[in-house]
Amino acid sequence: xxxxxxxxxxxxxxxxxxxxxxxxxxxxxxxxxxxxxxxxxxxxxxxxxxxxxxxxxxxxxxxxxxxxxxxxxxxxxxxxxxxxxxxxxxxxxxxxxxxxxxxxxxxxxxxxxxxxxxxxxxxxxxxxxxx
Length: 131
Description:
Number of strands: 4
Strand order of the largest sheet: 1-2
Mean pLDDT: 93
Oligomer: single chain
């Protein structure tokens, strides 16, 4: 029973990481940068993904990983950061993909919460058994 709770807690932490990654990526999705950075330019935003790995012992290991490629080149001749061809870099962030990732985190959070509630009910039922 404690293994189930430990696994569910690790799932909750993984869902929390996923929400944090989505929030960071969406908040920075409209950043624009030069195709060739110049001295004095602010750092280019690096979108992140969450990698979840199930372990043999049960818990999920969740870690952040940089998205590759970090940016895509798009035309925007009106941008002051555009190069001579009118191109700029924007973060490799798809709002559709981020929404799906947030929905996955929501379902994961709900499922792992149900595991913890069920384990608690099982423990209470076991404590009520007369020997």
